[in-house]
Amino acid sequence: MRSARILSLAPRQRTQRGVALIEALISVLIFAFGVLGLIGLEAQAINFSVDAEDRNRAALFASEIASSMLLNGSVTVSAAQYATWQTAIADPTGTGLPVGTLNIQATAGTTNSADITITWVAQSDPTATPQQLTTRIIVVPT
């Protein structure tokens, strides 16, 4: 009798073999998907950071141009000064913007008012619509 009891337990033990290995493989698979998700989030965070840096740089350029106009007391700028700013904005290797351009347009119907528009292409997606920052300056004569 005793030997019959041992034989009846043998098939049940055999079906349990490898279950721990399958559970471990499934947990590794779930962990791998989690790590891939984190890598994707990190890449997206880097893109947002680069875009914010470009936007900040454009705001600094616009502020510098506006300050120069305020110091001169006029929204008109010389061709040499405009070319200097355009070169600085278009220089992506220095502190410029990728494919950056500058446009200074006098506001219609007003005196001593102008729009400073800086346009650039986002580094994260060069095929997307260009980014743009516009600042309006009004110089009040003293």
In spatial order, strands of the major sheet run 1-2-3
Task: Count the DSSP helices.
Answer: 3
The share of residues in helices is 55-70%
Sheet with the most strands, sense and barrel status: 3 strands, antiparallel
- Distance, first to last CA: 114 Å
Count of distinct structural domains: 1
Report the average pLDDT across residues.
85
Structure overview:
This protein has 142 residues and is of the alpha+beta class. A hairpin with a 6-residue loop joins strand 1 and strand 2. Strands 1-2-3 form a three-stranded antiparallel β-sheet, with helices on one face. The model has no long low-confidence stretch (mean pLDDT 85). The chain is rod-shaped. The protein has one domain.
Write the layout of secondary structure elements.
Blueprint: H1 2-15, H2 19-72, H3 79-89, E1 101-106, E2 113-120, E3 131-138
Name the descriptors.
rod-shaped; three-stranded antiparallel β-sheet; alpha+beta; 3 strands; 142 residues
Quick overview of this protein structure:
The chain has 142 residues and is α+β, with helices and mostly antiparallel strands.
